[in-house]
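=== Per-residue structure ===
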Amino acid sequence: MAKALEGIRVVDLTQFEAGTSCTQLLAWLGADVIKVESPGSGDPGRTLSSVPDEFDSFYFLVLNSNKRSVTLDLKSERGKELFFDLVRESDVVAENLGPGTLERLGLGYEVLKKVNPRIVLAQIKGFGTYGPYSEYKAFDPAAQAAGGAYCATGFPDSPPTRPGITIGDSGTGLHLGIGILSALMQRHVTGEGQKVEVSMQDAVMNLSRVWMRGYYETGVSPARIGNGTPGMPASGLFPCKSGGPDDYAIVLSRVGDLLRWDALFKAIGQEEMAGDPRMKDSKFRQEHAVEINAAIEARTRQRTKVDVMRELGAAGVIVGACMNAEDLHNDPHIEARQMVLPFEHPQRGSIRTPGCPIKLSASPVEERCPPLLGEHTREVLAEVLGLSDGDVDQLVEQRVV
């Protein structure tokens, strides 16, 4: 079955997470993603682990499925020649190297578009390639802080707090993916490529736009509100049975009339509250928020967080169990959605990692093992550039690959 991006070739110079999350998405959707790495070391993410060992890290494995790896010394003249040959046969070059690195290597956009006028150069930088901060380096925490996410997270009496997930990295990768697909679509009209740039700070700010609405309403940056909405009943984090550190469920009531109050009260066994006509009045509910929340908590403490989600969700209440990593890897809904996919790794054996969140009816994703360093060097140089085994042997002797 043909894949959505079949026929699109991406030369992948990305590393760590922001860029690799983007190119993994393109690879899932069918693009031929050729990961170009330095001989001997490769993507620094291969060794980034809190439990280091001799194998590629799980950090690398969750970000590089479905790609092919080629080693190439881009600092050597022969390595650059081979790189340019790959660019001539490709549609996209993606990179998230440090500010100015591509240009210092002699591989900037002005050079690449002379090699292939149809090439799309896709770049992620912490603060972009222009503006007062453009020379600054960034990782996810710095981008989240500078983009607003820290100040939006936490409780009213707490300092700005780092969100636990890496929206500064993978959130930026998603933005870059959209930019790449847009540039490829425009190329159908113009016949020419272009440069696509996403700043990590810009991407986080874009994801923060709903939080910022309070600033437009009052002229003051919004205060942190933690897990609930001050003064609103049935809105917040409620403890569930077992009492572990992750045994909570979030219940929301502040979305217009989406929460049917009588349905909520019936679902938690409070028929008296359900039949009380005063509960239809928002002011009365606010005045009795403590009582309402106590009734909800009395119920949730008797149920597991998944049971709470099932019972309240079935009743039409907006609810979500706080699922940790283990929960997600054993959840039947996640399994049904194919959001955890297995593959066989030559060193680590059977592994499961998060799958592709985009579902296309005509081209379902097939998970392929992340590549070992340089695993496909001979294959790609032969298939794409027509080099023989003898040619590659010579490149190995010269330490070009």
The chain has two domains: 9-207+335-397, 236-324. The CA atoms of residues 107 and 148 lie 33 Å apart.
